[in-house]
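User: Can you fold this complex?
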Amino acid sequence: MSLNSKDDDLRSIPQILARNARVHGDKPAYREKEFGIWQSWTWAQAAEEIEAMALGLLELGVTSGDHVAILGRNRPALYWSMVAVQMCGGVPVPMYQDAAAEEIAYALDHSGARFAIVGDQEQVDKIAEAKESASNPEYVIYLDGRGLRKYDHSAMCSVADLTTKGRASGRRAELQAIIDGLTYDDTCIMLYTSGTTGRPKGVVLSNRNVIETAKNSCEFDHLSAGEEILAYLPMAWVGDFIFSIGQAMWTGFCVNCPESKETMMTDLREIGPTYFFAPPAVFEGQLTDVMIRMEDAGKFKKWLFDHFMDVARKVGPDLLDGNSVSFGDRVRYFLGNLFVYGPLKNTLGYSRFRVGYTAGEAIGPEIFDFYRSLGINLKQLYGQTEATVFITQQPDGAVRSDSVGVPSPGVELKIADNGEVFYRSPGVFVEYYKNPESTASTKDTEGWVATGDAGFLDETTGQLRIIDRAKDVGKMADGNLFAPKYVENKLKFYPNILEAVVFGAGKERCTAFINIDLTAVGNWAERNNIAYSSYQELSQLPAVLDTIQSHVNAVNKSVAEDPMLAGCQIHRFLVLHKELDADDGEMTRTRKVRRAVVAEKFKDLVVALDDGSSTIYTETEVTYEDGRKGKIKATLDIRDAKVVPTQKMAAE
Amino acid sequence: MKTSYEPYVTADGRKIGDAMMDMRNITLRFGGVEAIKDISFDIREGEIRAIIGPNGAGKSSMLNVISGFYNPQVGEVWFKGERRPPMKPYQVSRLGIARTFQNIALFEGMSVLDNIMTGRLRHMKAGLLKQAVWFGQAEKEETENREAVERIIDFLEIQAIRKTPVGRLPYGLKKRVELARALAAEPKLLLLDEPMAGMNVEEKEDMSRFILDVNDEFGTTIALIEHDMGVVMDLSDRVVVMDYGRKIGDGTPDEVRNNQDVIDAYLGVPHGEME
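Assistant: Here's the predicted assembly.
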């Protein structure tokens, strides 16, 4: 798509919208499935709706600098409302729709949002609940009026009423003047970070941040106006804002909104996006579904699938990267595509998948390779809200499962002595709202931002590899780098292992706690006629321990391949007799292990791992779902894992 | 006998009108067994009316009399100010009465969508021939009916199972599909036979919300039978209590809760005091 030369003058989202209405007027801009049918709006129609909304907001009294909370699931009208707010000179503040009322209350109070635009009754109720402790917002606008007929409408109206009011207002010239006055350094959006440590922080992003980032990332992947994306990730997440508004506006591609959260997979299949983003969990879930259904398939189908998946694993990634592949393999891959990959991709909704990313968590290499081998161009990126998403990303033809790519266009990268990754880019955020201390401690005067993650640049590929949170990375007694999460992630890629906690900071040798996955291991036991009566019993069966031991050995082997991290190999491990649980305080509600709590609670086990005993008797307090407490007692086996000698050790 | 009421508006803003259904001195016998003994009560337009009672009290029989499935030996059924003669089920449907069943009665092999579509029967006028060749009126009707059905699917939040065969669904969802089918008929009076039997707490909460929403959004009058006292007391405007085929209480949930006969029937009385 050749964009005209005036694109460099575009200084705000509303201005880009006006260009799209002019250049792509008849092209679908938004689709939403409603009442079982995909409804669509062209750029011209969307621009008209957005303008009507903005005029309505003007009538309601939204003025320059006002914060407007946006709360609801992905729907075109909510995306429009964000742009409408910007047209009035205001700042949209999207919030997580499934957040609890007190979190919403905090964000409302902190942002001082005067208005809220929400999806439906559920969110109206949430705002009302939050308002019991806060004085704002003054006025609420809702999209779906179901169940709201009897509510007090003195400070509330529907989006339909808003646009009607806007169309009748006759203040177009006034609105146009505000739009014309928007500058590159005006605030585009404010997003709250999830806040794993302390209160959420409001990240302020300018028009410059968003537009430069959108422009650079679209060029990086050659995104065009013909792309189709599915907007299903939370609107309060920076990624959704960049994909569904930043990039969509910049190139003029089409944003498709699913009918509901539950129908996402069906809608994905119907749309067949060309550009797609999903966290690893989505890809994992899909792969598991495929594998389970193949287990239940007939013998011939199973054989066909296994045979061609072997072919795919061998040649698929090479074909995707454009490497040379023998003629025979090409023919076999072509047949595989005809019989297996094509239909499978169609079922998954990836038939038209041209480029896509996964990020947020480490993705298992098997999962990653499965999709790549099918010819799905899945890549990894590394980013954060403060960077307007992109820090590094993988270019086509240089995709690896163990690293997160080269610096994105315009991004400078440096690694501090302690391994922490710093970056500087046009996307670097303006500030944390009303929080100059945090701003100063995150961003230095030269514009370098601390990511809080430790990593290093791979010398051969030039790609960044993230190993852990910087604060978790330590040194072992012999000075070797200790990166627990790096090893734990490798362990967790095995379906049998649900959680792992590795200890080693300041110690001679690394040790580990392992949690088995009850579903996977239980299923295995069932198929092998192994009887067990409880999680505890299953976890200590010799056969189970043997399996886990083989996984640990394999992980050690893979860790040893990396000279920097070879010291993190696990020497001794045990399988825990209970699942780590948020109710017992061992994990956060988002299922992240609380390392310090676990180390303290199971102190006796950590000691036993270190002192060389082969069994350990332990008593653990547990909290049941109804809040009662009890004790479980167990004797746990401790096993030695096979360690690959590293160069340094061999020299000693 | 009272025949006319003053309309009023409830505390939460719903309009309750004149009597829609009036049951006058109904007695229903199966051979020598008297299932219903001389019961009179009414259902007013726009209200949620519950019928409660212990097992075998005659609740379902009563619902079947209202729906016209049973014809009482004694007594009169008045509907919208007119005496209703004995009727065939399709005639009852045309009057604007729809129902769900205690033990789900759906077409297991058909999709959710098709099941709900069957509820639109009374809105389909095209003849067999036109439907078979998919011509003119038939095509137009199908589009209109599908639209109505999709609105109900949206209303009950079952988009994700639209194309799923009913047989594959869990119990709670089947109940919701059954409600959807009844709603598809756009009834004026909706009869629900134990809509929450066998559900867990969460499913009950969902169903309660849908019942209230149906009543509120569409103004549908609802008569329901339910065992769960908590649910009944929360949902209903008025409650009829039955025991051994007799009416032992009638009034608002509070009135019924404090009625001595009702307490005795539910909690039992010592042997010596029994009649």
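The domain at 474-651 of chain A is CATH 3.30.300.30 (GMP Synthetase; Chain A, domain 3). Chain A touches chain B at residues 34-37, 146-147, 149-150, 259-260, 262-263, 266 (CB under 8 Å).
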